[in-house]
Amino acid sequence: MARLLHGRPLAERIKRETRTRAERLGARDIRPQLAIVGVGGDPAAHSYVQRLERSAADCGIQTMGGFMPRDTTEQQLNTHLERLSMDRTVNGILLLTPLPGALDEAHVIDHIAIAKDVEGMHPFNMGFLADGRPRFVPSTADAVVELLKFYDVPLEGAHAVIIGRSTVIGRPAAYLLLAEDATVSIAHRGTRALEKLTQIADIIVVGVGKPGFLTGAMVKPGATVIDAGINMTPNGLAGDVELESVASVAGALSPVPGGLGAVTAALLLRNVLTATERQTT
Q1: Neighbours of 245 (CB within 10 A)
Q2: How far apart are CA 275 and CA 135, in angstroms?
Q3: Is 139 helix (H, G, I), strand (E, B) or coil?
Q4: CB of 158 within 8 A of CB of 145?
Q5: By residue range, what is the domain housing residue 255?
Q6: How far is residue 196's CA from residue 220's CA, in Å, rounded to a whole number?
Q7: What is the DSSP letter of 107?
C-alpha cells in the first residue's frame, strides 16, 4: 500500500514561517494585502476563496476584492486589474481562473503588475522560471516540488512524467523538476501510448481535470504519484488518480483531498509576503 504524502504538515510549517515574516512587517506598520479577483464564480470557487481568506488572516495577511459579475467585459476586467496594480495598498493580485465565456485569459494576465503577480502567471515571470531564475512561481506547480522535497523523494536523476501541459501546473512543474536535475517528460492529449511512458517513470505528476484518469496499470511498482487534479463529482472532491488501484502499486501517493491543496494555498500566501517585502524595502 502506498505511503500517503499528506500536505498539511508542510503547509503548517510554511504558514508559521509566513506568519513570522508578517509580524516583522507589522512591526514596521506594514500590512500585506492580497486582492482576489474572480468573474462569476461557482460554489466551489466561492468556497476556495473563503478558505484562502481564513488562511490569509491566520498568516497576518489582509484580503480584499471578490467576484465581478459573470457578464463583465474583458475591458472592464483589464481596467480593474490595472487599478489594483497601481494601488499602493495592494501587494499581491490573484486572478481566479479559468475565466468564463470569451474572456481571453492570456491577454487579461498581461494587465497584472509583474511585481504583484503572486501566482506567477504573467509572461515575464514565466520567462524567468523557464530561464532557471524563478521569481514568482505558480503555486500548484511549486507545491508539487515542495511536497516531494518535504518527503525526501529523490529528484536528481529521477525520471519524472508530467501529464498535462498547462501553464499553471504542467509546464512550470517541468521547469522546477529540471532545476532539481530530474529527467522530465511532458505528456499531453497528443501523446501516443501514454502508459508506456508512465510505466517507466519514477515520479508521475497528473493534472488534467479528469477523475480516475491515472490507473494502477499505468504506474511502475514503487513509483511516486502526485495528484494535482481537482474534480467535483457526485461523491465529492476527487483527483485525477484512481485511488484504489494506484495505491496498491505506487510507493507513495498524494491524496485528494489532503495532498497539494493546503500546500498550494500556503505557498501563494508566502508569495504575498515576498512581494510585500520587495515593494517596501
Answers
A1: 16
A2: 10
A3: helix
A4: no
A5: 139-261
A6: 10
A7: H
pLDDT: which is higher, 256 or 45: 256
Query: What's the total number of domains in the chain?
Result: 2
Place of cell 502499486: 249
Paired residues of 237 in beta bridges:
232
Do residues 224 and 247 make contact, with C-beta atoms less than 8 angstroms apart?
Answer: no
Residue 91 has which C-alpha cell? 501587494
Whether the CB-CB separation of 179 and 164 falls below 8 Å is answered with: no
pLDDT at 269: 98
- Residue 243 C-alpha cell reads as 485511488
For 123-143, b/e burial (b = at least 16 CB within 10 A) is ebbbebbeeeebbbbbbbbbb
Instruction: Please check whether residues 115 and 37 belong to one and the same domain.
Output: yes
Establish if 20 belongs to a structural domain. Answer: no
How far is residue 255 from each of residues 15, 191, 259, measured CA to CA in Å?
21, 25, 5
Put the strands of the sheet holding 252-254 in their side by side order.
Answer: 3-4, 252-254, 224-227, 203-206, 159-163, 183-187
Instruction: Please give the angle made by the CA atoms of 158, 159 and 165, to the nearest 5 degrees.
Output: 125
Cis (ω within 30 of 0) for the bond into 255?
no
Instruction: Indicate if the pLDDT at residue 44 is higher than 80.
Output: no
- Dump pLDDT digits (tens) for 126-144: 999 999 999 999 999 999 9
CB 120 within 8 A of CB 91: no
| Beta carbons of 141 and 112 less than 8 angstroms apart | no
For residue 131, give the DSSP letter: T
pLDDT band at 101 (very low <50, low <70, confident <90, very high): confident
Statement to judge: residues 56 and 92 lie in one domain: yes
